[in-house]
Write a structure and sequence with these properties.
This protein is α/β, with parallel strands linked by helices. The protein has 18 helices and 14 strands. Strand 5 and strand 6 form a beta hairpin. Helix 6 packs across helix 7 and helix 13 packs across helix 15. The longest helix is centred in the middle third of the chain and has 25 residues. It is globular and about 90 Å long.
Length: 510
């Protein structure tokens, strides 16, 4: 069978210091429940500037300028170790807040985003210079008198847009009574769309694909757009494709909490392998609600607020080109409804079910990409080193199965695992941050097999107590076109010719 390939990937971060305070869920809840708290008084003094965010090694790893292995040699906390970073990377960029706010207005299709004229005049040349792909939409960037905006914000009928602690615009509600179209929700959805568009643009740059060759887009973030009659109906995918110039594409949204990106990649692979589409893009914007999510713990530990970026990514899945890593669609792992939610049951289902079908050992996988959350963020918040915990469980499972000697467990974690580097944006860290590196490692690098693992907390929706997860295996392309599972064109021609010949003979005999 002909397996699809991972042909390209992009990763973006947007530094959003004002959105931490104005729009993050932790600060919003604190304002509503304890408006005079010391936390709200202190937080602005603990937010990093743009240069510090760029010069932070995990962020440079995320956009492809550095390898994740380099983090192993750095002392923690990594935020105390400055590096010389760059805004643009091999796989994407770290966008400043002012340009992102302007991009939100460009992505606004219903005249909901209002920006002050001075701000627009300052930021417009930056977008024109950095994003020629948006040339046809730059005209949407316009300034207004935003004086009425403050009253609308105070009345909760608009969501303020702030830069350098000053209000530079606002997002209006899209309906008078529909809570699904209120200002806060519209703000969050525009953040998702804009960060998704940025990811989609960078995918074009990194993969060099013609945007008109993209057939389908799957969006897999954690937000949902819709109105009172179809809350969460979508479609972020086509709205992102429209601005990114994917004019020949259609698409839809996939939701599965943190596991959604891996679900989406499997769906994309299936669509390509079936021959329905040749090029499918999986894309996700970021979550403004998670900005500053663990800020209280970070400040208590004397650290800056480290959840200060919105994340995004895009991955291109295409027909087998004989070069890029193949997705083994026959070796997919999944957490079934009846599996159970204990850590051991989850890990066994996700790691071994795909391997067993190919009679492979856990040790036959060169690298596992699990929940690649940055431990700089999670350890001070009491969640520990999430990737390391996952690798220890995988190693323990290998020992239990007889794939590994117990004395080799520490070496297994060091050799098969990677330090986490992704922001805690929910779906963003789950398996997919490694895909960009995976393409290199399984083509020009020294690795032959990797496993991408996505896990999700379905119980967050209060509809079930179930856990969730899926995984798939990626392998080095052997450069040989696999045997087709169908009938070739030449065989079809031969069959038709034989049938016509027989028909002619039968007519002559009659």
């Amino acid at each position: 069978m002909s397996y699809p390939v991972l042909k390209g990937a992009s990763y973006v971060l947007i530094h959003t210091p004002d959105m931490i305070v104005q729009n993050g869920s932790t600060c919003n809840v604190e304002r509503a429940t304890n408006p005079d708290s010391e936390f709200l008084k202190e937080i602005n003094n603990n937010i990093r500037n743009y240069e510090d965010v760029v010069n932070y090694m995990p962020n440079q790893v995320y956009i492809g300028n550095n390898r994740p292995e380099e983090l192993k040699n750095m002392s923690m906390p990594w935020c105390n170790e400055k590096v010389e970073g760059n805004r643009f990377g091999k796989l994407g960029e770290i966008m400043p807040q002012d340009e992102f706010i302007a991009l939100m207005q460009i992505c606004d299709a219903f005249d909901l985003v209002k920006l002050c004229e001075k701000f627009v005049n300052e930021v417009k040349p930056k977008l024109e210079n950095n994003y020629p792909e948006l040339a046809q939409f730059i005209a949407k960037l316009k300034g207004d008198n935003i004086e009425e905006g403050l009253e609308l914000v105070n009345n909760h009928t608009a969501e303020g847009l702030y830069h350098e602690d000053k209000m530079v615009g606002y997002v209006k509600r899209a309906h008078d009574v529909d809570v699904n179209l209120n200002a806060h929700t519209m703000f969050e959805n525009l953040v998702v769309k804009a960060s998704g568009v940025l990811s989609a643009i960078h995918l074009l740059r990194s993969s060099k694909i013609n945007p008109l060759d993209i057939d389908y887009v799957i969006e897999c973030s954690e937000e949902a757009c819709g109105d009172i009659n179809q809350r969460g109906g979508g479609n972020f995918a086509k709205s992102i494709a429209e601005i990114a110039g994917y004019n020949n594409a259609t698409g839809s949204d996939t939701r599965g909490f943190c596991a959604a990106p891996t679900h989406a990649l499997i769906q994309a692979a299936a669509l390509v392998k079936s021959g329905i589409y040749k090029n499918v893009v999986v894309v996700a914007g970021g979550a403004s609600a998670k900005l500053g999510m663990n800020a209280k713990d970070h400040i208590k530990k004397g650290l800056p607020v480290l959840e200060d970026v919105v994340g995004g990514f895009a991955v291109l899945v295409s027909e087998n080109d004989g070069i890029n890593p193949i997705i083994r669609t026959d070796l997919v792992g999944k957490h079934n409804v009846g599996t159970g939610s204990s850590p051991q049951a989850v890990m066994t289902a996700l790691i071994t079910s795909g391997l067993d079908r190919a009679n492979l050992k856990i040790t036959d996988v060169d690298v596992f990409s699990v929940e690649m959350q940055n431990p700089d963020i999670t350890k001070p918040a009491g969640a520990g080193d999430v990737p390391e915990a996952n690798y220890k469980m995988i190693g323990a499972l290998a020992v239990k199965r007889g794939d590994l000697e117990k004395k080799e467990l520490k070496e297994f974690v060091a050799n098969k695992g990677l330090p986490g580097w992704a922001p805690t944006q929910g779906h963003i860290p789950s398996g997919v941050p490694y895909v960009g590196f995976c393409i290199d490692d399984l083509t020009t690098g020294d690795k032959n097999r990797a496993m991408i693992v996505g896990k999700g907390s379905l119980f967050l929706g209060r509809m079930t107590n179930l856990f969730d997860g899926v995984s798939f295996i990626v392998e080095r392309n052997n450069g040989v076109e696999e045997e087709s599972s169908g009938v070739s064109k030449e065989e079809v021609k031969k069959i038709i010719a034989e049938a016509l010949r027989k028909l002619a003979l039968d007519m002559i005999e009659e």
